[in-house]
Specification:
By secondary structure, this protein is of the alpha+beta class. Helix content is about 35%, strand content about 20%. It contains 9 helices and 13 strands. It binds 2,5-anhydro-1,6-di-O-phosphono-D-mannitol (AHM) and magnesium ion. Belongs to the FBPase class 1 family.
Length: about 325
């Protein structure tokens, strides 16, 4: 009986990834182990984020003066991810938004993967309890020599997996290993991520645009024209709604599920935009393409960028296929 099966046959994220990996005869479970350490980091951050407000009020351990000693949530999250990833024994190079330099894993703990991540993105939203998230992308090492920073300076289309975890009204992990996109929701009573959003496809076209319009006076021509078109369409189509949380994970998650477009364009003050190529632009672009959408930099397909520095930035336009087509046309007309 199907209703019964739904309730008792729980597809956890570990089981899901094990199933996927079993399609590859050469797979030895390394990816599953790596992912379970990422999942551990996400669960830790979820729990810390949920307690953050209370911790400030009463002090988590009941101690006084805890605030002074307490590490900031983003630093704490970074420590947890770095330690979990290194001890997984499956990584060689780690790049985190929080660390200026890449972490090159010592030889006894090395493995075949490189992980780029933003442990807690959306810092301006932490203190008011609005959704924040973790973003990650995974590459494989292409050699067995000493790992270097160059091992992650590769185009996004070489990633083997990418995902994010959103700490919102529920805690959701969205993952792609290159064969579509799947969403898992944390069941707090089980401490497990359960498949709740199988095979996510972004609508071909959406009716929402998402951008920090406070920067409008500094935008370039194509971005200005595009946003004008969202608000005052001349072709008889309805105007789009504006939604902007200011947390990339939340804004991209909504875009993925409801359709539409998310923009962080270049402007006169930030000629490369704000968002980071390796651990913000690439993972989200990977997910968008895997869900049937597109991601564009204003010049080219985002996943074709080749970063020269680990903290490099790029403008980004991503979302529904047809919406991104429109902004691509405006940039093409400019050339
Ligand atoms: P952060 O790394 O300081 O948290 O900044 C990244 C965030 C993204 O989550 C979000 O898309 C963007 O910054 C919002 O920027 P702005 O406040 O300029 O609109
Ligand atoms: Mg960030």
């Amino acid at each position: 009986h199907e209703a019964d099966a739904y309730r008792t046959d729980l597809m956890t994220i570990t089981r899901f990834v094990l199933n996927e990996q079993s399609k590859y005869p050469e797979s030895r479970g390394d990816f599953t182990i790596l992912l379970s350490n990422i999942v551990l980091g996400c669960k830790f951050v979820c729990s810390a984020v949920n307690k953050a407000g209370l911790a400030k009020l009463i002090g988590l351990a009941g101690e006084t003066n805890i605030q002074a000693e307490q590490k900031k949530l983003d630093v704490l999250s970074n420590d947890v991810f770095v330690k979990a990833l290194v001890s997984s024994g499956r990584t060689s190079v780690l790049v985190s938004e929080e660390d200026e330099e890449a972490t090159l894993v010592e030889s006894s703990k090395r493995g075949k993967y490189c992980v780029v991540f933003d442990p807690l993105d959306g810092s301006s939203n932490i203190d008011c309890g609005v959704s924040i998230g973790t973003i990650f992308g995974i590459y494989t090492m292409s050699h067995n020599d000493e790992p270097t920073t160059e091992d992650v300076l590769k185009p996004g289309n070489e990633m083997v997996a990418a995902g994010y975890c959103m700490y919102g009204s529920s805690c959701m992990l969205v993952l792609s290993t290159g064969t579509g996109v799947n969403g898992f929701t944390l069941d707090p009573s089980l401490g497990e991520f359960i498949l709740t959003h199988p095979d996510i496809k972004i609508p071909k076209k959406g009716n929402i645009y998402s951008v920090n319009e406070g920067n409008a006076q500094n935008w370039d021509g194509p971005t200005t024209k595009y946003v004008e078109k969202c608000k005052f369409p001349k072709d008889g189509s309805p105007a789009k709604s504006l939604r902007y949380v200011g947390s990339m994970v939340a804004d991209v998650h909504r875009t993925l599920l409801y359709g539409g477009i998310f923009l962080y364009p270049a402007d006169k003050k930030s000629p490369n935009g704000k968002l980071r190529v390796l651990y913000e632009v690439f993972p989200m672009s990977f997910l968008m393409e895997q869900a049937g959408g597109q991601a564009f930099t204003g010049k080219k397909r985002a996943l074709d960028l080749v970063p020269e520095k680990i903290h490099e930035r790029s403008p980004i336009f991503l979302g529904s296929y047809e919406d991104v087509e429109e902004i691509k046309a405006l940039y093409a007309a400019e050339e």
